[in-house]
Request: fold
Amino acid sequence: DLNCSNVARVATEPSTDRGVGSGSGGSGSGGSSSSKMSSLIEDVRREVFTYTNLVHAISGMTGGVTAISTFYPLNIIRIRLQVDEQLKSQSALSVARKIVKEGGIEALYQGWWSSVVSLGASNFVYFYTYNAFKTVYKKLIAQNPKAAIDPITNLVIASTAGVINVLATTPLWVVGTRLSMQSKKADIERPYNGVADALTRIASEEGIAALWKGVGPSLVLVSNPSIQFVTYERLRGPMARIAEKRGSPISAFEFFVMGAIAKAVATVFTYPLQLAQSRLRADKGKAGNAKERNYNSTADVLRKVYKEQGALGWFKGMEAKLWQTVLTAAFQFLTYEQVQKVVFSLLVRNKVEAASV
Reply:
């Protein structure tokens, strides 16, 4: 879900790249392929692994961690509704009351740390992969270190980075779902004791492949920003005409509202896949044989849910998801610049102190 937000954000932003470097233009035909590759790697290293990019990566991670922590109870409610077959579809508030009644207020934050770890890893993998691909595009395809990247190309690059991010971080998100859903009743099952314990036990008890359960719908969900992008552009056109008639530019609030509507539309269209993703991640196998799965694929999840609950079952928990999506987007929209300023000031101060030692 967070990966989709990253893809959508960069796809709708104009490219403000500073250029790959003076040596990144088209090289002579006499140069060897190895020297070209060395030059490309050096350009990627020089352009991507910079102090400024580190600040942006930390800012994005910090903003994301703060947002998911603030609205984490909505995440728990969504996962419970998606995964718990005994829990009837009801309002987010009703589910929250039930969770608190059974496990106390801390139950609304169960699995919080694993989500923070997953989000932090996901942000860094995505951010640096995305910027590396932009650098490669400019040198090998555009052959212009200062070329502006159009929104469609940007979306393709962002989606490719999203696929790599999904493949690299899915095990962490599987663990996060398991920790969020596990029962505290020792007589029912032995609970996981944190991220590392969950990773090793899932691999040993269910097989290495179990760590990538749900990767199928996760890869398809990389298309979520494409829906969001198209919806956003359809909204932006009429809004631009309205702004032109009134004689003032589109305001920050109007940009946010358009973004929130586009995200909500994308969420509704892809929500059944998100439900399948959660069920596959939470699937511990059948009693007595952890390697025999309850669900064999995304299609199997959707088929069984439809058979038991009808088409509405595919949208169980969507209310909590929409609240989480809109509130998290609003929070990140309002706080990102402030977070960035704080991170810049802290790193600059540390840099100055280190230089004075």
Observations:
- Confidence is low (pLDDT under 50) at residues 14-30.
